[in-house]
Design brief:
Elements: H1 2-17, E1 33-37, E2 43-49, E3 52-55, E4 65-68, E5 83-85, E6 87-92, E7 106-110, E8 135-142, E9 154-163, H2 165-171, E10 181-184, E11 201-204, E12 207-215, E13 225-229, H3 234-243
Length: 244
């Protein structure tokens, strides 16, 4: 009976588990997605205003460069619609600590307003929180080659649902899952590893609901990721933008 249940679970989740395709050449870059290039490792950012980007606080990296409208960072010279901008300041959440996955948010004020067009646009912030079983799109770049010193060359968009705190604790027994966190993925998790760019956003029903703060595994293969729940930080986001 147990084997039958395991087989049934595998069949139901097979389409999601196989959505990660490192050879996919047809992925479409979400209009809000930003490649944060640095002298260290890259991150993902999200355009929430023509002058503001949100990402994880751990993406406060040296010589950061923001590239919009890019699909394949490893071959950026062939990209037709990119915008490259600098930033004026980075503002991380005042309670963020590098020893914790909580409050892992940062706002980046750009040097100039982004030109919004058919290839670059903002994403909406939530007016209500995401709930269990909401379907979300997780977007980030993955590495085809085992070379962290090379920019990634594969954009991936994976549709996965929000799970409950109880299910999330099954995947992360040693982490306290708090109300300001959002978990997206499939339990049980941990499939084949992959190299993916950190701070992937979770956009649910067209609304930014989370920024990846921690994952033990590969979120592009539907392993459970812990995301900062954006809804809980709307007052901080709005106040920061208003005062800067």
């Amino acid at each position: 009976m147990i084997m039958i249940l395991i087989l049934l679970w595998a069949l139901l989740n097979l389409p999601v588990a196989l959505t990660f395709d490192p050879d996919d050449k047809n992925a479409i870059t979400p209009l809000y997605l930003i490649y944060l290039k640095s002298d260290y490792l890259p991150c993902v950012g999200v355009l929430i205003h023509p002058l503001w980007v949100i990402t994880a606080a751990h993406c406060n990296l040296p010589k950061l460069q923001l590239i919009l409208g890019v699909t394949k960072p490893s071959n950026i010279n062939e990209e037709k619609y990119i915008q490259v901008v600098g930033y004026e300041k980075m503002i991380h959440h005042p309670q963020f600590s590098i020893t914790s996955i909580e409050y892992n948010l940062m706002l980046i004020k750009l040097q100039t307003h982004i030109e919004l067009n058919d290839h670059v646009n903002t994403v909406s912030l939530p007016i209500k929180p995401a709930t269990e079983d909401d379907m979300c799109t997780i977007s980030t770049w993955a590495y085809n080659l085992c070379d962290l010193y090379k920019d990634p060359d594969s954009l991936q968009n994976v549709n996965i649902s929000v799970i409950s705190k109880v299910e999330c604790r099954r995947a992360y027994k040693n982490i306290r899952i708090r109300d300001n966190m959002l978990c997206v993925g499939i339990v049980p998790g941990r499939r084949q590893p992959c190299k993916e760019v950190t701070a992937a956003p979770a956009v649910c029903n067209g609304v930014l609901q989370g920024i990846l703060t921690f994952a033990d595994g590969c979120v592009l293969r539907a392993d459970v990721g812990i995301y900062t729940r954006i809804f809980n930080y709307i007052p901080w986001i709005e106040n920061t933008i208003r005062n800067n």
